[in-house]
Amino acid sequence: MGLSWVLALTQTTVFGNFILKAKAKDGAKDPYDKPFYHKFASILRTLIRRKTLTLGSMVVLFVASLIIMGTMPQNFFPSLDKPYFRADVFYPDGYSINDVVKEMKSVEEHLAKQPEVKKVSITFGSTPLRYYLASTSVGPKPNFANVLIELTDSKYTKEYEEDFDAYMKANYPNAITRTSLFKLSPAVDAAIEIGFIGPDVDTLVALTNQALEIMHRNPDLINVRNSWGNKIPVWKPIYSPERAQPLGVSRQGMAQSIQIGTTGMTLGEYRQGDQVLPILLKDNTVDSFRINDLRTLPVFGTGNETTSLEQVVSEFNFQYRFSNVKDYNRQIVMMAQCDPRRGVNAIAAFNEVWPLVQKEIKVPEGYTMKYFGEQESQVESNESLAKNLPLTFFLMFVTLLFLFRTYRKPTVILLMLPLIFIGIVLGLVLLGKSFDFFSILGLLGLIGMNIKNAIVLVEQIDLEAKTGKKPLDAVVSATTSRIIPVAMASGTTILGMLPLLFDAMFGGMAATIMGGLLVASALTLFVLPVAYCAIQRIKG
Questions:
Q1: Residue 4 belongs to some domain of the structure
Q2: In a domain, 84, yes or no
Q3: Which domain, by its residues, includes 51?
Q4: Cys bridge to 335: 227, 453, 483, 521, which one at CB 3.0-4.6 A?
């Protein structure tokens, strides 16, 4: 912007002197003595005479635009226009990875038969290495599989992602499948997450179950679950020093024997290309799923003899436990999670659930309830953007004070800024776009464009007033002379945004700038002169 300012003052004037040649007769003729400009001046004088009605109408339109924006779909980060999508498949906790592999093999065979599918990559137990910047990591989890699907064309992505999600829900109902298109923001564990933080597990489970019950009542929500998963059976042999040490069996020796009889004890690693395979020592004669076989599991001591596991323990403890307990700021947290049904906006669904949770759930003392998920990411990003906005507007006001050396004219200019929301809402609604993160960036740029047009008009009014014209005539004459510059500056910017309108990422930003700038230009020509006359107390 700084360089463009320098070029505008130097190169534009130089090239203008060479290219633009004024004719002698042009100076004798008023370029604004035309029916169009006369009609515009007549309309403007009518609006100035009816200041209260004009400005009141703008306030009503502004309030209406805010109300409409509150009902519009909001998507914090748009999806990328890529021929890929991913699916995270979660089976119940305790599910064997061998069973996961077996079921996902049949899924792979189904995908291979689809003509739209080009490639399929399935990773078991965890997500693969980061294959794009915003990908997230899951695992290690034996009950998890990640499916990465590449299609022949990006035009099939959204449709086939929906078809694959429906296929998984119909054929594998015991698994939770979360499909997602590629976005610039990392995919969260769930679109809606409401967490409870505190010291006692049972209390957290009770609070989370209440939130889950509220989520189940909403027909627009699916994949309702908690963040810890289900409880799994845990069989724990209690080591007895009194019985084990006389037999030469240490606690470590007992643990290694249990590993050999169940999952296998790692002895080393075998590297083959880019793969690292563990070398396991395992007793294949032991059925690790039979409790009686585990009781008689051979345990090696320091001597040459072996003994059974039940001879070196005091008892076998069997219970159900959560295997995936999480913490937040060094405190235990359990979340009620869900996703919106396809076609339902996540933010709108959250705005339905969150008030009910706050109203119906009484959080005990010492416990905290807060939201996570997409809402937390959105709030954090918006706060980081809004943190410096007061300072920004203050510096804008100070700059305008130095320019005009009066409080009234900067006030007129800044009062026009909220009204650009009228154009933003109009552009988003007519063009079918949602208000996302890039729309916010477009809004910030739109503020600068609107201030530029307003400064040009107010400065022209001052120049017209210095020629000796009456205040009202100076306002009308200055505004008439600014029609073409304002329209051309706004029109070229709007046309420049047109290619971005069809882009999946920047479409919302383009619609924001196009709609906002179109209405802002009209406000500059019709409403700003009225506000100027009202604040400067110029009678119509």
A1: no
A2: yes
A3: 36-71+406-536
A4: 227
